[in-house]
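Why show two proteins at once? Because comparison is the fastest way to build intuition. When a single record is shown, students tend to memorize it. When two are placed side by side, the eye starts asking what differs. So, the first record is below.
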Amino acid sequence: MSDTAHPRTGPSWAAPAEDDVDLSVVIPAYNEERRLGPTLDAVTSYLGAAGDRFGTWEVVVADDGSTDGTGDLVTAHPDPRVRLVAADRNRGKGHALRLGVLATRGRRVLVTDADLAAPIEELDRLDEALGHGNAAAIGSRSVPGASIGSRQHRLRELLGRAGNVLIRLLAVPGIRDTQCGFKLFDGDRARAAFAASRLDGWGIDVEVLQHFHRADWPVAEVPVRWSHQAGSKVGPLDYGRVLAELVRLKVRSWRPADLLACAAFLLMAVVLYAGRLVDPAHRYLPDSLQDQNQWEWFFAVTADSVAHLRNPLFTDLQGFPDGVNLMANTVMLGLTVPWTPVTLAFGPAVSLSACMTLGLAATGTAWYWLIVTRVTAHRGAAFTGAALAAFAPPMVSHANAHPNFVILFVIPLIADRALRLCTGERVRRDGVILGLLTAYQIFLGEEPLLLAALGLALFAAGYAVARRDVARAAWRPLLRGLLTGAAVCLPLVAFPLYWQFAGPQSYGSVLHGDDAGNSPLALISFAERSLLAGDARRADALSLNPTEQNAFYGWPLLLLALGIAVRLWEHALVKALTVTAAGAALLSLGPRIRLPLTDLTWPGPWALFARLPLFESVIEGRVAMICAPALGMLLAFAVTRMARLSAPGPRWAGVAGVALALLPLVPAPLKAVDRVPVPRFITAGTYKAYVHPGETLVPVPLPDPGAAEALHWQTVAGLGFALPGGYFNGPFGPERTGIYGAPPRATSSMLREVRYSGAVPVIDAARRAQARQDFAYWHAGALVLAPQPNDGALRRTVTELVGRPGTWTGGVWVWDLHGRR
């Protein structure tokens, strides 16, 4: 059955043939027999008494399939200017509004709820605002000047406020109250917006205002008087339905090319991690060195803390008895906490694998969104630039081991919000959002945030020189927004940062030596995992390790970037991006730059930062990672310009140049191997007979950054025992200098030396006494030696230290220390 109209109106989906009127009032109604009569009387009386104030008018009641006498009440109304349009069945407020608005013929259209929560007299305010050049004037309960009489239930108010926040974030930025049912529109634009709408529920207000926003039709938010009326049709479940409709709106706003880009980034991440994804619990990325063990442990210990309501900032499961300051380590609470259900259900190996794969895809998507929003609307160009930003050689290198440098999807959001501040519009709102994003990024990774701030500073300096007029207009709102952001961020992170820098097992800084900068040759060479041009030996010689190949952009890409900069130098964006990339590359060379093929060194600009707080712990070679998004945006801008060339020759020459620069950088899948099996002594729970409450299991040698497989034992055992030693950052000595692992003790140092040398030292009474002291300090319940290089020498050493041979059980040698300390 189709929608019907009262005979007085004609077809319900088209405006009547009669002459236009000045004002149409649309009232959606569903089973409003009791409330609608007084509303119609109030509206017609007010408009009738206004004389020529609003000109000719009509009232259109859109009946949404009422089952009471709503329709009869309208048709019996004595004023012929009151009309009825009726739906065949109840479909929702959105459908009723669309039906009513499309039946109007007014030059202006007022939409008001049947309960007149905002009195009809408030039309004066809206009409005045519409007369000032706006396409719509909407009543608001949330702007200065609004007054609320009878209020809603407190819970409904809280849900409404939360919904408005989501609406501003997802659909209609800048409008505080989209759901107040009192709105005045330009008639033609209202009919166009409602005709384009698709939602049948309460979300239609957002959908229509989103249409106005995208069409750049100005909307004024006008304070009104409002009072809650009994008999509201909004139920608790409707808030969830509105949220679902918002999601539908957001998804529908995406172009097919955008969805394809997101899918492509996910596919690229899956291919990169294919070797581990097939069986995360039993596959290992060897180029992660010991970091995969460490990160799985981070996921496991955080999930354990959340599940048992323990302090997630500290644990003594490693580094016993001193423990580990987790906030001072890269534990990424912003991810490990929300991933707790996955970790508890499927294990930390699955959590880490899925999180890094999805996180890398999300990073590519976020850079794509930023480039589309700020650089170019050309989807192909944006995808090219974002792919370079997310899958550049240094990103692939860190993809082996460092989620905090791979999962960077918040960084583009921070950059976008900083750019919004520069416009001077909605400074307070954007400052608040910037503060929230910054706080969250602190719980994802502080070093990437510091590098992002450095990159944004380089960009700002370059753009300010190129466009001084823009810089003069932008610095004040930017400063106000940054101060607002700091005021929001600091209370959220104050205690965790206090714990990090002054809490138990905190430390000053981690020193990486003077050779952590990139060689100039690294910038023009190719990384190990570059599929077509990778050179493992050269990359190894020019980097700290496989996880720190922080440059390796290759000479073809750098030549292309130089050509783009020279050819398009007149554009301020190109100048700023060039300054950003070149400045980051130069800073990444470290405090002293060694000239290739010589013994000469020059002072590097990083020397200005090297001793500053926070910067002193940065591996300066990582600064070159800033080049990836800068080069990606530069490339996206250039590809857009190429696409606009009318001559096919230059256009295809440009495409060929881009392909030749990027093809050598296409990454090969990360190397993956079968994992060393965990001994049955651990998996079968045999250790429980040897390690009593308050005691530790002591692997031989103790776990450290070079050999941390015992952390995997611990996660497989569900964190059923504590470990001395470990792989983490902690303090050392009276200066509390940061080191990797626990402070060495005499016995742990000796056992480590035996593992690497194979030489059994002379064990005398002094060493046995020292070992007893160390075992007591560690609260050792048992020493455990698994098969490994030089395990024979280790076994002889431990036997002499303990004074008796170990027992072979569960695939390991065990020395029970109870009663023998």
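Second record. Ask yourself what differs from the first in the token line.
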Amino acid sequence: MRVGEQAMRVGASAMRVAVIGGGPGGLYAAALLKRLDPGREVTVWERNAPDDTFGFGVVLSDETLGGIEHADPVVYAALQDEFVRWDDIDIVHRGVRHTSGGHGFAALGRRRLLEILHERCDSLGVELRFRAEAPPVADLMTAYDLVVAADGVHSLTRAAYAEVFGPSVEEHRCRYIWLAADFAFDAFRFEIAETEHGVMQLHGYPYSRPSPDHHPSTRPSGPQNQFGASTVIIEMREEVWRAAGFADLDEQESVEQCGKIFADALGGRQLRSNASAWTTFRTVVNDRWSHGNLVLLGDAAHTAHFSIGSGTKLAVEDALALAACLEERPGLEEALVAYEEERRPVVASTQRAARASLEWFENLGRYLDQPARQFAFNLLTRSRRVTHENLRLRDAHFTAAVEREFGCPPGTPPMFTPLRLRGLKLRNRVVVSPMDMYSAVDGVPGDFHLVHLGARALGGAGLVMTEMVCVSPEGRITPGCAGLYTPRQAESWRRITDFVHRQAPGTAIGIQLGHSGRKGSTKLMWEGIDEPLEDGNWPLVAASPIPYKPESQPPRALSRAQLTDLREQFTAAAWRAARCGFDLLELHCAHGYLLSGFLSPLTNRRTDAYGGSLTKRLRFPLEVFDAVRAVWPEERPMTVRISATDWADGGTTGDDAVEIARAFAAHGADAVDVSTGQVVADEHPEYGRSYQTPYADRIRHETGLPVIAVGAISSWDDVNSLILAGRTDLCALARPHLYDPHWTLHAAAEQGYEGPGVAWPMPYRAGSRRPQTGRTDAPKPRLSLGT
């Protein structure tokens, strides 16, 4: 049957649906499809017996439960009778427990969930075939109008059509095992164990309540349900797992060893398993979720790490969306497209949060020495879904305690705490990030720069940075780039620094010095970013003679004599910058410009003393840094901007970035401005909210050097969260300051803050309260099937 013919039968009572996989996602999809149209013939194949299940408890969010309530009140009512609900999260580290409340969880046993769905499918007339392998997918696609593949993370369906679905499966660094304990934790519990082999962690949560008539002194018997039950996941890095000998233990021996390690959390009680095995988490991503009348659902289509919730939750939401789209759309093909369009952004957002969470736990060891409450706050906000503001709303007492420990004065948000770098005291943690304006004439900053930088200085940021200021005419990116290689340019910059210091007292202004290298002699950004000039080109130089793009002008490799000349150009510009009154100087060693080109192995192919190993690739940037530091006033700080990854195979790695930061710190850098990418044209960044901040976080914790975090940080809530969690010292924002030059002032007003961390210019004080606006209703997530 052709897809077009199948599409015509979507709304027909004779529609035949095959579901591969009898997990919660497949069963719920089957029940919904049958409930919405009793005439449908729905068959589920499940290779296991009806009472077989793996894992123990399942967590569902209130939002997901709301969708279930609307879609099928019968299932919702059955779940309501079974759910264990709790609000607290306990974090136990080095013998100290910190509790944060107001979170709201609901869980039940996976086996009971399956029983409820089995009963619902039976009552609706869904045919359930247990202990039965599904027929070949190609045969099902011919015999049925719709085939739903809910066959899990190891989906054979996905593998059979890999060339269509385009799956990517990434295996991660930790080993974990799903176990259970026959008592109910009274909170979601995270416990850290520092052993001789390395750090291990326990994730535990209740999924079954104690029986009302149980007594604590009663010895458990049978399944021990009268004492409740909890899921217990033990997780650790692969190397720790091996060092601890788990690779050589059988299932029962592993269970017993885990029980000993986390005896305090378990109160000395035993753990139990259910065909439990150590495994590594796999993140599954697919380019497509459907093919003809075949569609992927749940773990077959996508996975998200268990530390932020439940794969069951995503699968149930998939089932709801699929059923709704089939009801709302006239044809099968259109319905499957709508299903994927609706779910893909939700899943992508969840997977980004899940990656942040799993990487936090993979690198747990770097946070162990944080103050106890800050450690707890860091753990709670690890995925970036829980933030300072919503945690404050959930548990104001806990959040206030974290702020006090951090050093926030009463009533002061973290972003408005001061920071000292050498002799410079920044009154808050907000930086206006360097942004090229392409509006200079012959390198001279004009009225536009005065208004641009002056407005942002009046806007309340602690530090305002210039764009990359070029050290020579040949070092410009475009003809519109600013420089500091002539007296006239210096006079213009002095005009700007004088304005900032006079009209925005307490705001610091910094200069970023750089040289374009192989990325120079291009058009203005809005005329063609990175495109070569059509005429008036100047010669380019770089570490190696490699053009940025195939159509770019090839650079010449720098000779030793030219390296000396360049170093002197940087020194002269730094000397002028000091006389111009800049408070801070940043050396631009990122984004593929000249100094960055020396650091990356993708752009430095030299065979002399300035190429090869990382130590040699660092040599020239460090020589320039030393020369600049020598003429820059001792009391004024210097920072360095680096690209912590090239987002390309064979380029700079996170390990390299740590060593680069250490090297600059050893030469006197006061902070590292941690950006990423833009080094090679064929990069593949992993964009998302705050996507570059993990690199700053790592450098800060592994080097002890203050860092500036950048990269899609857009809200004051994100700034507070990053600062308070100890992931960065300063946050640099670019586009938000283009959208709102007074971003920091508005952040203070919205938080009701009027302390010394920010000051409204007297002429602007009348605007320090947010104007009233009309009501707006944000788009709501799907919680209903529609009609």
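One difference worth noting in the second protein: Residues 332-362 form the longest helix (31 residues).
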